[in-house]
Amino acid sequence: MSAQYHPLVKRLLDGELSLAELPAELRAEGEQALRLIRGVDRAPVTLPATLDARVMATVRRHAASPVRRAWRRLTAPRDVELRLRVRPWTVWAGALAAAAAVVLLVSRAPAPSSPPRDAGLPARVASHDSVYVRFVLYAPGAQRVTVAGTFNQWDQNAAPLRPAGTNGVWATTLAVPIGQHQYAFIVDGERWVADPRAPAVDDGFGRRNSVVAVIAQGARTL
Amino acid sequence: MGLRDGATDGEIVRAVLAGDVERFAVLVCRYRDRYARYATRMLGSGDAAEDAVQDALVRAFDHLADCREPDKFAGWLFLILRNRCFAERRRRTRMERPLELADEAFAASGRPDGELEQAERSQALTAALQHLTAEQREVFVLKHVEGLPYDDIARLTGATVASLKMRMHRAYDRLRELLQEHA
What we know:
The structure holds 2 protein chains of 2 kinds.
Chain A lengths: L6 H8 L12 H12 L11 H15 L1 H10 L12 H19 L18 E3 L2 E9 L6 E5 L12 E2 L5 E9 L1 E9 L3 E3 L6 E3 L5 E8 L2 E4 L1
Antiparallel strand pairs in A: 1-2, 2-5, 3-6, 4-5, 6-7, 6-9, 8-9, 9-10
Chain B lengths: L8 H9 L6 H8 L4 H8 L2 H17 L10 H23 L5 H8 L9 H12 L4 H12 L4 H8 L3 H21 L2
């Protein structure tokens, strides 16, 4: 007799087939296998009632143990709620900074070999990370106009504008790093003027600063 | 609080975790006998099963905070008991020959008339089970002693139905071989 049951007999033992479904030549083997399974002791097992008392005595001892209590406190998983209070302007600032960073990383253009040929905003790429931007202000009667901003550390003498003709228009072209910048014009060395063509934000000191976003493709007022 | 507590396992687990240690007695009462048969058949000894169940319940209390789904405490406790039984089997394998009673039981199965009495047959099979691997024995016990379908066994143990069937079929062959050898 083979030591292994026929696969169909194993399916019989698994309850997937009945004895009648076995081929006639396997029925004797099937009956013998079923006798084996009938020997299974399915009688319920009842443990002594004293087990409850023993378990609970141990449990109480463990619950009272300061070492175990400390260990449970250390190892017990907890739900932790993190709350982040964000002011709306920080979200916008973060988003703009992220956008500028993306633009900086993705859209770098090669430096041109020649300076800008024409005026107007926006201008051309100045280098890998800066773009020529033309600043224009209508200031009839002014003797001196400069532009200061985050791109030149607010140095009010670093970027003078020149008269563009005789009709009171002043202009200059600067290589401005890619990114978002705030700026303002200074008329005659004392009057700070926001660019009327650009949006402005409060500088926190009672003045208004203009805002420009410089990307590789040029400058864009927001 | 009486032990005929109608609360769900999850409610009791949460109460115990909140500091009501005595409510754990409800879970002890609820599960000690439910898993006693499994432990007895796995370990082949009532005393060993009692130790295993007691140890599993205490471990369950000690690690109750790790029970991620308190409403599934029963399955979680079963896994603790299962690990305990497997560890005990490994320890015995290293320390001693498995079950001295086995040969006596097999001897009883060799009656001349070939017709085993139910008790003798049961005794022989119980002894033979101890010669299976722990995995084979477990699937046999869960299917033929506890009466669970393969799907439920797979959920309990984490094994696939296909691998459980393979273990079981090898167990059938091994049992046949063992009982023939001693017949």
